[in-house]
Amino acid sequence: xxxxxxxxxxxxxxxxxxxxxxxxxxxxxxxxxxxxxxxxxxxxxxxxxxxxxxxxxxxxxxxxxxxxxxxxxxxxxxxxxxxxxxxxxxxxxxxxxxxxxxxxxxxxxxxxxxxxxxxxxxxxxxxxxxxxxxxxxxxxxxxxxxxxxxxxxxxxxxxxxxxxxxxxxxxxxxxxxxxxxxxxxxxxxxxxxxxxxxxxxxxxxxxxxxxxxxxxxxxxxxxxxxxxxxxxxxxxxxxxxxxxxxxxxxxxxxxxxxxxxxxxxxxxxxxxxxxxxxxxxxxxxxxxxxxxxxxxxxxxxxxxxxxxxxxxxxxxxxxxxxxxxxxxxxxxxxxxxxxxxxxxxxxxxxxxxx
Length: 354
What we know:
Blueprint: H1 2-18, H2 22-25, H3 39-47, E1 52-57, E2 63-67, E3 69-74, E4 78-83, E5 96-98, E6 108-111, E7 117-118, E8 124-125, H4 130-156, H5 165-184, H6 189-211, H7 226-243, H8 246-253, H9 263-306, H10 312-347
Antiparallel strand pairs: 1-2, 3-4, 3-8, 5-6, 6-7
Protein backbone atom coordinates (compact mmCIF):
# COMPACT_ATOMS: atom_id res chain seq x y z
CA UNK A 1 0.00 0.00 0.00
CA UNK A 2 2.80 2.38 0.91
CA UNK A 3 4.65 1.58 -2.30
CA UNK A 4 1.56 2.44 -4.37
CA UNK A 5 1.16 5.78 -2.62
CA UNK A 6 4.83 6.65 -3.13
CA UNK A 7 4.63 5.64 -6.81
CA UNK A 8 1.56 7.86 -7.38
CA UNK A 9 3.22 10.80 -5.65
CA UNK A 10 6.28 10.31 -7.86
CA UNK A 11 4.10 10.37 -11.03
CA UNK A 12 2.28 13.50 -9.81
CA UNK A 13 5.65 15.19 -9.23
CA UNK A 14 6.82 14.29 -12.75
CA UNK A 15 3.57 15.61 -14.31
CA UNK A 16 3.90 18.86 -12.38
CA UNK A 17 7.51 19.23 -13.44
CA UNK A 18 6.90 18.62 -17.14
CA UNK A 19 3.61 20.50 -17.34
CA UNK A 20 5.45 23.87 -17.50
CA UNK A 21 4.71 25.52 -20.84
CA UNK A 22 7.53 25.42 -23.36
CA UNK A 23 7.28 29.15 -23.87
CA UNK A 24 7.98 29.70 -20.18
CA UNK A 25 11.00 27.39 -20.33
CA UNK A 26 12.39 29.17 -23.37
CA UNK A 27 11.90 32.62 -21.90
CA UNK A 28 15.33 34.24 -21.57
CA UNK A 29 16.67 34.88 -18.10
CA UNK A 30 16.66 38.61 -17.34
CA UNK A 31 20.12 40.11 -17.22
CA UNK A 32 21.38 41.43 -13.92
CA UNK A 33 21.23 45.19 -13.70
CA UNK A 34 24.78 46.49 -13.58
CA UNK A 35 23.63 49.49 -11.55
CA UNK A 36 21.95 47.31 -8.90
CA UNK A 37 23.31 47.55 -5.38
CA UNK A 38 25.78 44.76 -4.59
CA UNK A 39 25.72 44.30 -0.83
CA UNK A 40 28.47 41.68 -0.67
CA UNK A 41 30.94 43.87 -2.60
CA UNK A 42 30.07 46.89 -0.44
CA UNK A 43 30.62 44.96 2.81
CA UNK A 44 33.82 43.25 1.69
CA UNK A 45 35.26 46.55 0.44
CA UNK A 46 34.64 48.09 3.85
CA UNK A 47 36.18 45.35 5.99
CA UNK A 48 39.15 44.85 3.64
CA UNK A 49 42.28 46.96 3.68
CA UNK A 50 42.91 49.31 0.75
CA UNK A 51 45.24 52.02 -0.56
CA UNK A 52 42.48 54.63 -0.54
CA UNK A 53 39.83 55.82 1.89
CA UNK A 54 36.48 55.81 0.12
CA UNK A 55 34.16 58.59 1.30
CA UNK A 56 31.11 58.55 -1.00
CA UNK A 57 29.88 57.72 -4.48
CA UNK A 58 28.21 60.35 -6.67
CA UNK A 59 25.06 59.74 -8.70
CA UNK A 60 27.12 59.45 -11.88
CA UNK A 61 29.10 56.58 -10.32
CA UNK A 62 32.25 58.57 -9.56
CA UNK A 63 33.82 57.89 -6.18
CA UNK A 64 35.19 60.49 -3.80
CA UNK A 65 38.13 59.15 -1.82
CA UNK A 66 41.24 60.12 0.11
CA UNK A 67 44.20 58.63 -1.75
CA UNK A 68 46.97 57.38 0.50
CA UNK A 69 50.70 57.27 -0.33
CA UNK A 70 52.07 54.16 -2.04
CA UNK A 71 55.61 53.13 -1.05
CA UNK A 72 57.11 50.33 -3.14
CA UNK A 73 60.56 48.83 -3.46
CA UNK A 74 61.89 46.44 -6.10
CA UNK A 75 65.34 45.45 -7.28
CA UNK A 76 64.58 46.56 -10.82
CA UNK A 77 63.19 50.02 -10.01
CA UNK A 78 64.37 50.76 -6.52
CA UNK A 79 62.19 52.90 -4.24
CA UNK A 80 59.00 54.46 -5.63
CA UNK A 81 56.70 56.82 -3.70
CA UNK A 82 53.51 58.19 -5.26
CA UNK A 83 49.80 58.69 -4.61
CA UNK A 84 47.46 55.71 -4.90
CA UNK A 85 45.34 57.85 -7.23
CA UNK A 86 47.85 56.97 -9.96
CA UNK A 87 46.69 53.33 -9.69
CA UNK A 88 42.95 53.99 -9.26
CA UNK A 89 40.42 52.45 -11.68
CA UNK A 90 42.87 49.87 -13.03
CA UNK A 91 45.51 52.38 -14.18
CA UNK A 92 49.12 51.39 -14.75
CA UNK A 93 51.77 53.71 -13.34
CA UNK A 94 55.52 53.17 -13.61
CA UNK A 95 54.86 49.52 -14.43
CA UNK A 96 52.71 48.91 -11.34
CA UNK A 97 49.06 47.86 -11.25
CA UNK A 98 46.54 46.86 -8.57
CA UNK A 99 45.03 43.39 -8.83
CA UNK A 100 41.25 43.90 -9.13
CA UNK A 101 39.98 40.34 -8.72
CA UNK A 102 40.77 36.99 -7.16
CA UNK A 103 42.36 36.15 -3.84
CA UNK A 104 45.06 38.79 -4.38
CA UNK A 105 42.59 41.62 -4.94
CA UNK A 106 43.98 44.97 -3.79
CA UNK A 107 47.64 43.87 -3.97
CA UNK A 108 50.08 45.79 -6.15
CA UNK A 109 52.07 43.87 -8.76
CA UNK A 110 54.46 44.75 -11.55
CA UNK A 111 53.27 44.40 -15.13
CA UNK A 112 54.88 42.83 -18.18
CA UNK A 113 55.39 44.38 -21.62
CA UNK A 114 51.77 43.63 -22.60
CA UNK A 115 50.47 45.57 -19.57
CA UNK A 116 49.28 42.40 -17.81
CA UNK A 117 49.89 41.71 -14.13
CA UNK A 118 52.82 39.44 -13.37
CA UNK A 119 51.82 37.79 -10.07
CA UNK A 120 55.31 36.29 -9.69
CA UNK A 121 56.88 39.74 -9.69
CA UNK A 122 55.56 41.55 -6.61
CA UNK A 123 57.45 44.52 -5.11
CA UNK A 124 57.90 45.01 -1.39
CA UNK A 125 54.91 47.07 -0.31
CA UNK A 126 55.41 49.56 2.55
CA UNK A 127 52.36 51.63 1.61
CA UNK A 128 50.23 53.59 4.06
CA UNK A 129 46.84 51.87 3.92
CA UNK A 130 43.54 52.33 5.77
CA UNK A 131 44.65 49.94 8.49
CA UNK A 132 47.97 51.75 8.96
CA UNK A 133 46.24 55.15 9.22
CA UNK A 134 43.71 53.80 11.74
CA UNK A 135 46.46 52.11 13.75
CA UNK A 136 48.59 55.27 13.88
CA UNK A 137 45.56 57.35 14.84
CA UNK A 138 44.79 54.96 17.71
CA UNK A 139 48.42 55.12 18.86
CA UNK A 140 48.35 58.95 18.83
CA UNK A 141 45.07 59.00 20.77
CA UNK A 142 46.58 56.62 23.33
CA UNK A 143 49.68 58.79 23.66
CA UNK A 144 47.53 61.89 24.11
CA UNK A 145 45.47 60.20 26.82
CA UNK A 146 48.42 58.96 28.86
CA UNK A 147 50.54 62.09 28.43
CA UNK A 148 47.53 64.11 29.64
CA UNK A 149 47.16 61.70 32.55
CA UNK A 150 50.85 62.07 33.45
CA UNK A 151 50.65 65.87 33.37
CA UNK A 152 47.51 65.77 35.51
CA UNK A 153 49.28 63.71 38.19
CA UNK A 154 52.26 66.06 38.14
CA UNK A 155 49.98 69.01 38.85
CA UNK A 156 47.69 67.49 41.46
CA UNK A 157 49.89 64.78 42.93
CA UNK A 158 48.36 61.67 44.46
CA UNK A 159 44.84 62.68 45.35
CA UNK A 160 41.28 61.77 44.47
CA UNK A 161 40.82 61.37 40.67
CA UNK A 162 39.71 64.40 38.72
CA UNK A 163 39.30 65.13 35.03
CA UNK A 164 40.82 62.46 32.82
CA UNK A 165 42.08 60.65 35.93
CA UNK A 166 38.52 59.75 36.90
CA UNK A 167 38.12 57.87 33.59
CA UNK A 168 41.50 56.14 33.20
CA UNK A 169 42.49 55.39 36.79
CA UNK A 170 39.65 52.91 37.52
CA UNK A 171 40.46 51.03 34.30
CA UNK A 172 44.17 50.87 35.15
CA UNK A 173 43.41 49.72 38.70
CA UNK A 174 41.05 47.08 37.32
CA UNK A 175 43.74 45.70 34.99
CA UNK A 176 46.24 45.65 37.84
CA UNK A 177 44.04 44.19 40.61
CA UNK A 178 41.77 41.84 38.62
CA UNK A 179 43.97 40.75 35.71
CA UNK A 180 47.70 41.15 36.36
CA UNK A 181 48.05 40.27 40.05
CA UNK A 182 45.76 37.19 40.10
CA UNK A 183 47.46 35.66 37.05
CA UNK A 184 51.11 36.69 37.58
CA UNK A 185 51.45 37.14 41.30
CA UNK A 186 52.39 40.18 43.35
CA UNK A 187 56.12 39.69 42.73
CA UNK A 188 56.00 39.64 38.91
CA UNK A 189 53.06 41.74 37.72
CA UNK A 190 54.78 45.17 37.74
CA UNK A 191 57.22 44.09 35.05
CA UNK A 192 54.40 43.34 32.60
CA UNK A 193 51.93 46.13 33.42
CA UNK A 194 53.21 48.43 30.62
CA UNK A 195 52.65 45.69 28.05
CA UNK A 196 49.20 44.75 29.36
CA UNK A 197 48.06 48.37 29.50
CA UNK A 198 49.39 49.06 26.00
CA UNK A 199 47.61 46.02 24.55
CA UNK A 200 44.32 46.75 26.33
CA UNK A 201 44.05 50.41 25.37
CA UNK A 202 45.37 49.88 21.84
CA UNK A 203 42.72 47.23 21.12
CA UNK A 204 39.99 49.19 22.89
CA UNK A 205 40.67 52.46 21.05
CA UNK A 206 40.79 50.69 17.69
CA UNK A 207 37.57 48.81 18.43
CA UNK A 208 35.72 51.99 19.40
CA UNK A 209 37.11 53.94 16.44
CA UNK A 210 35.86 51.21 14.11
CA UNK A 211 32.29 51.78 15.35
CA UNK A 212 32.35 55.46 14.36
CA UNK A 213 31.66 55.52 10.61
CA UNK A 214 32.88 59.02 9.77
CA UNK A 215 35.16 60.97 9.33
CA UNK A 216 38.51 59.27 8.60
CA UNK A 217 40.49 57.86 10.37
CA UNK A 218 37.36 56.52 12.07
CA UNK A 219 35.50 53.59 10.56
CA UNK A 220 38.52 51.44 9.67
CA UNK A 221 38.39 47.73 10.44
CA UNK A 222 41.79 47.73 12.17
CA UNK A 223 41.35 44.96 14.74
CA UNK A 224 39.39 43.02 12.11
CA UNK A 225 42.60 42.76 10.08
CA UNK A 226 44.16 39.35 10.69
CA UNK A 227 47.67 40.70 10.05
CA UNK A 228 47.32 43.08 13.00
CA UNK A 229 45.85 40.45 15.32
CA UNK A 230 48.68 38.12 14.26
CA UNK A 231 51.28 40.69 15.35
CA UNK A 232 49.52 41.27 18.68
CA UNK A 233 49.31 37.51 19.31
CA UNK A 234 52.98 37.13 18.29
CA UNK A 235 53.96 39.80 20.84
CA UNK A 236 52.19 37.84 23.58
CA UNK A 237 53.84 34.64 22.35
CA UNK A 238 57.38 36.06 22.50
CA UNK A 239 56.81 37.76 25.86
CA UNK A 240 55.52 34.45 27.22
CA UNK A 241 58.45 32.39 25.92
CA UNK A 242 61.11 34.83 27.08
CA UNK A 243 59.46 34.93 30.51
CA UNK A 244 59.51 31.14 30.89
CA UNK A 245 61.56 29.78 33.77
CA UNK A 246 63.20 26.39 34.19
CA UNK A 247 60.05 24.80 35.59
CA UNK A 248 58.05 25.96 32.59
CA UNK A 249 60.45 24.42 30.06
CA UNK A 250 60.80 21.30 32.19
CA UNK A 251 57.03 20.77 32.03
CA UNK A 252 57.18 21.04 28.23
CA UNK A 253 60.13 18.75 27.45
CA UNK A 254 60.22 16.57 30.59
CA UNK A 255 56.69 16.52 32.07
CA UNK A 256 56.93 15.17 35.63
CA UNK A 257 55.27 11.86 36.33
CA UNK A 258 55.01 10.89 32.67
CA UNK A 259 56.52 7.53 31.58
CA UNK A 260 59.44 7.75 29.17
CA UNK A 261 57.58 5.89 26.41
CA UNK A 262 54.76 8.46 26.61
CA UNK A 263 57.11 11.42 26.11
CA UNK A 264 57.10 10.72 22.36
CA UNK A 265 53.45 11.81 22.34
CA UNK A 266 53.43 14.39 25.15
CA UNK A 267 56.34 16.55 23.95
CA UNK A 268 54.80 17.25 20.48
CA UNK A 269 51.46 17.95 22.17
CA UNK A 270 53.08 20.46 24.53
CA UNK A 271 54.92 22.15 21.64
CA UNK A 272 51.67 22.42 19.66
CA UNK A 273 50.11 23.99 22.75
CA UNK A 274 52.75 26.74 22.68
CA UNK A 275 51.45 27.90 19.28
CA UNK A 276 47.75 27.10 19.70
CA UNK A 277 47.37 29.65 22.51
CA UNK A 278 48.46 32.73 20.51
CA UNK A 279 46.61 31.33 17.48
CA UNK A 280 43.40 31.35 19.53
CA UNK A 281 44.11 34.96 20.57
CA UNK A 282 44.58 35.98 16.94
CA UNK A 283 41.44 34.28 15.60
CA UNK A 284 39.17 35.32 18.48
CA UNK A 285 39.86 39.05 18.13
CA UNK A 286 39.80 38.98 14.32
CA UNK A 287 36.58 36.95 14.04
CA UNK A 288 34.56 38.85 16.65
CA UNK A 289 35.37 42.33 15.34
CA UNK A 290 34.94 41.37 11.67
CA UNK A 291 31.62 39.65 12.38
CA UNK A 292 30.34 42.75 14.15
CA UNK A 293 31.20 44.98 11.19
CA UNK A 294 29.54 42.57 8.76
CA UNK A 295 26.32 42.40 10.79
CA UNK A 296 26.01 46.19 11.13
CA UNK A 297 26.73 46.76 7.43
CA UNK A 298 24.28 44.01 6.43
CA UNK A 299 21.51 45.74 8.38
CA UNK A 300 22.32 49.04 6.66
CA UNK A 301 22.33 47.35 3.26
CA UNK A 302 18.74 46.20 3.76
CA UNK A 303 17.60 49.74 2.94
CA UNK A 304 19.30 49.61 -0.45
CA UNK A 305 18.47 45.97 -1.16
CA UNK A 306 14.73 46.58 -0.74
CA UNK A 307 15.15 50.06 -2.28
CA UNK A 308 12.48 51.43 0.03
CA UNK A 309 12.46 54.02 2.79
CA UNK A 310 9.80 52.03 4.64
CA UNK A 311 12.45 49.55 5.74
CA UNK A 312 14.76 52.34 6.97
CA UNK A 313 13.28 52.80 10.49
CA UNK A 314 13.48 49.06 11.21
CA UNK A 315 17.01 48.84 9.81
CA UNK A 316 18.23 51.90 11.72
CA UNK A 317 16.69 50.58 14.96
CA UNK A 318 18.58 47.29 14.68
CA UNK A 319 21.77 49.11 13.63
CA UNK A 320 21.62 51.24 16.80
CA UNK A 321 20.94 48.12 18.86
CA UNK A 322 23.90 46.29 17.27
CA UNK A 323 26.16 49.33 17.74
CA UNK A 324 25.37 49.31 21.46
CA UNK A 325 26.11 45.59 21.56
CA UNK A 326 29.33 46.10 19.59
CA UNK A 327 30.40 48.78 22.07
CA UNK A 328 30.16 46.12 24.77
CA UNK A 329 32.08 43.69 22.52
CA UNK A 330 34.78 46.34 21.99
CA UNK A 331 35.48 46.45 25.74
CA UNK A 332 35.00 42.70 26.12
CA UNK A 333 37.49 41.74 23.42
CA UNK A 334 40.14 44.11 24.79
CA UNK A 335 39.55 42.61 28.24
CA UNK A 336 39.71 38.99 27.02
CA UNK A 337 42.90 39.54 25.01
CA UNK A 338 44.59 41.21 28.00
CA UNK A 339 43.30 38.58 30.44
CA UNK A 340 44.51 35.64 28.35
CA UNK A 341 47.84 37.33 27.67
CA UNK A 342 48.44 37.77 31.40
CA UNK A 343 47.30 34.18 32.01
CA UNK A 344 49.71 32.76 29.43
CA UNK A 345 52.58 34.86 30.77
CA UNK A 346 51.76 33.82 34.33
CA UNK A 347 51.71 30.14 33.33
CA UNK A 348 55.29 30.55 32.04
CA UNK A 349 56.46 31.47 35.55
CA UNK A 350 55.26 28.60 37.74
CA UNK A 351 56.82 28.04 41.12
CA UNK A 352 58.62 24.73 41.52
CA UNK A 353 57.00 22.54 44.15
CA UNK A 354 59.15 20.15 46.17
